[in-house]
Amino acid sequence: MSVYHINGQQVHCVEEGSPNRQKAILIHGWSSSSYAMSPLAGLLSQRFHCISVDLPGYGSSPPFEGRTTIPRYAELVADLIEAISPGPVVLVGHSMGGMISISVALENPVLVERMVLISPTITGKLSRMINRWVSPINVIERFALGSLIVSSVEKLYVGITDRLMRPVSFSDRTDITEEEYACLRADARRPGQGRVRAECFFAMRDHDLSAKLSGIDVPTLVIWGAEDNTVPLRDAGIMEDEWPATDLRILPKAGHWPQFESAAVTRRLIAATLGLPLLSHNLHAPVEDQEITRIAEVARFLAHSSIGKDMNKAQRSRLAAQLRSYKFDPGEYITNQDEAGEEMYIVQGGTVEVWTDPHNPAETDLKPRRVATLIAGEMTGELAMLDQGTRTADLIAGPDGALVLGLNRQMLLALVEDDPELGSKLLWNIAKAMSGRVRFILWQLERAMQRAREDKKSPASLQ
Q1: Residues 30 and 167 in one domain
Q2: Residue 214 carries which DSSP code?
Q3: Which of 9, 13, 300, 349 is most buried, judged by most C-beta within 10 A?
Q4: pLDDT per residue over 123-144, tens digit each?
Q5: Pair 202, 100 in one domain
Q6: Are residues 76 and 10 in the same domain?
């Protein structure tokens, strides 16, 4: 764990990933610590320098001198970004951390490139269950003697509070493990946390973000558990009304902790949003700088190709991360006719020649014929990839070789499922490109037939 000194305030952080990468700042929520973001750190560290913060008063960070407020936390995060990052960062906030992230984006939009918010507090008004069982305790905890009393009682009645709080925090069919649950509860019971926990409870209520969200212009993914009984889904409704540009996803089988309760789905959505490479079993394995550079180059190329038409920068980066790059020498076979097709190709550099054998038994010349030459930006193989049929032609690298991008069927289906907006744009662009090619072929056939008719009518043909 590293320690930063920001304007005299100690901030303890857990860091992962190459320090030379873009920063991703992970901000936990109320009664929590950096551990709350641990299911995401391995994934994000593949591409980013991932910094999970212990907010003052939580985890290993000492509390503020004076009262704790959301604006103070937001200012601290902004100062931290200024101190450690050469450019805009990705903010990932859970619960109260989501409220803090939004506040940073509102006050200092230049610092934030993208955001991922998990069950973010918007109005600051938590659920009825929280207000019924926790609010009275927080009133007591605002005072030193009350905090001591609550801590003493808590040690005696841990089982009772767990039975009260578990249905508030987690869904009935949660996938959280007992080990993870024990760590989260230990965070909430950390000694000496009573005062800051009480101050944060009321600080959230005093920092209602409704009627302010329309001023945010940062691409944002929002993930919410369908059974969240801590931050109610009515806050999601406010967000949908005031901030329609957000990508809002509501997960079944998840409560207030989707990153633990539906970890695989949550990671997949975040990977799609942030343009991360394919998920691997070894989440903590960093992606090489060369791969990051390749993704950026492919994203720029897609901006000028038919396949990337009408996609924004984030969507092109998302798509680029799923495309594999292949380099072929002049004359080298890319695919063979009659192979099963699971992958389509986009020409990025050089040319790709399409060769086919005639299948008309009446033809005597059975030599292969080149029927088309594809240049940069054009695609091929999409029909076999879509219907999983066999290919109808050989694809061969042109005289100068070829650099092609491959998208397999599995990744296409994953994009459609995880990001319907991007998936629909991609399928639409594929369909338009196929339509344009068919129209061109039909035009060629019509021209050939017209020439044949004209030849029959010419004087030479009548003699």
Answers
A1: yes
A2: G
A3: 13
A4: 988 866 665 555 555 555 555 5
A5: yes
A6: yes
Beta strand pairing call for 23-27 and 89-94: parallel
Cβ count within 10 A of residue 136: 10
Q: Residue 80 is part of a domain; what is its CATH number?
A: 3.40.50.1820
Classify 419 as helix, strand or coil: coil
* Shared-domain flag, residues 347 and 390: yes
Residue 420 forms part of a structural domain: yes
This prediction has a pTM of 0.75
Residue 449 lies in a domain: no
Start-to-end C-alpha separation, the chain: 94
Distance CA 163, CA 174 (A): 15
- Report strand pairing: 333-335 vs 89-94: unpaired
pLDDT of residue 212: 92
- The total number of structural domains in the chain stands at 2
**Co-location of 166 and 241 in the same domain:** yes
Q: Looking at the predicted structure, is the pLDDT value of residue 229 above 90? A: no
Q: Which of 2, 18, 4, 1 is nearest to 77 (CA)?
A: 4
In whole angstroms, what is the distance from residue 275 CA to residue 216 CA? 21
Tell the burial category of 363 from Cβ atoms under 10 Å away from its Cβ (0-12, 13-18, 19+). exposed
Q: Which of 241-255, 268-282, 434-448 has the highest mean pLDDT?
A: 241-255
Task: Indicate the SS3 state at residue 223.
Answer: strand
Contact of 266 with 116, CB cutoff 8 Å: no
425-427-430 Cα angle (round to 5): 110
Query: Does residue 191 carry a pLDDT above 80?
Result: no
Choose the final residue of a domain: 273, 300, 319. 273
Segment (H or E) for 374: strand 369-374
Query: Cα–Cα distances in Å, from 254 out to 119, 170, 171, 188, 441?
Result: 10, 7, 5, 20, 51
**Chain Cα centroid distance, residue 441:** 39
CATH code of the domain containing 398: 2.60.120.10
Question: At a CB cut-off of 8 Å and minimum separation 6, what does 122 contact?
Answer: 99, 102, 208, 209, 210, 213, 231, 235, 238, 239
